[in-house]
Amino acid sequence: MLWDHDEKAHEQYMNNLAPIVLFTYKRLDHTKKTIEALKENLYAPESSLFIYSDAPKTERDAQSVQSVRDYLQTVDGFREVRIIMRKENWGLARNIMDGVTQIVNRYGKVIVLEDDIVSSKYFLKYMNDALVLYKDCPQVMNISGYMYPIATEDLPEVFFMHSGYCWGWATWADAWSHFERSPEKLLQEFTQDEIYHFNYEGTTDFWQQVVDNVSGKLYTWAVFWDAAIFQNQGLTLTPRDSLTLNVGMDRTGEHCSATDLYDAVINQNPIRCFPLDIQESALARERHRRFFRRQKLGFFRRLATKGRNGIRKLFACLSAVADRQ
User: Fold this and answer.
1) What is the dihedral of CA 301, 302, 306, 310, to 10 degrees?
2) Which of 44, 50, 269, 305 is 20 to 30 Å from 72 by CA-CA measure?
3) pLDDT tens, position by position, 313-325
4) pLDDT 10s digits, 25-69
5) DSSP-assigned letters across all residues of 261-281
6) Residue 219: Cβ within 10 Å count
7) 324, exposed or middle or buried, with CB in 10 Å at 0-12, 13-18, 19+?
8) Model confidence pTM above 0.70
């Protein structure tokens, strides 16, 4: 970056690093992995870390939550560490929405992690570089550290997508001001054509999360950040090779089943080439569609192995896919 070679600019850059906000609950082992990886980051000693520790939902969780809180008191290796201990259980979505809003409105920008996101040692550098480079580009609303394990041949080092990603991400106050968790409103506003494109041309079904939030089956936040970016023709900067890995897809997290479909090899190299052409990569979008189609086919195969009932479900799913496409 240019400020790497300008001593005064570099000093100003280092004094204005984005605050990191981390959300924890009761998973001590995951939290340790997340924080230890973060401490190894190039800019960790110069960065401020805000940790939101949610209170236990039940008495059964109290000991696990306290174990995490005891560990958090020992965390060092950052410019400062501030721990916000919730006095009542907020739940993951409310905790994140409130914490991100507090920090981003105070500092103008924020880097966000949950307690199961392990990062590359260049994650913070990438985030801060991008936050500086695109701060005056309102179309760029989100910076992602994660990338699905898509086919990467012929893709640039980083590129833009019309989507939100929440496994290690960053944004600015102006962009976050568009965030609104209003599932009923989205049901009224989105057309069938918009839902089709929101679902990557029918190759996946992110929209179902909105429906499930309306019915009360889910209470989540990330799909609404995705929708805010989509509705405002916004873009997310994403790396070709993921700088984060979610180690919590093991049935221990909220709304997550055990799977390795999203596992990625963490890129331990710095990002050097940032795009100046601010538009979605058509090639990357096609690679996303291909990835989601493979997932869907794998799901169908698993159903088919479950006998006659599975086959009936398989044909029902195939019919539904054909209707959408």
Assistant:
1) -70
2) 269
3) 444 443 333 333 3
4) 999 999 999 999 999 999 999 999 999 999 999 999 999 999 999
5) TT--PPP-S------SS-SB-
6) 15
7) middle
8) yes
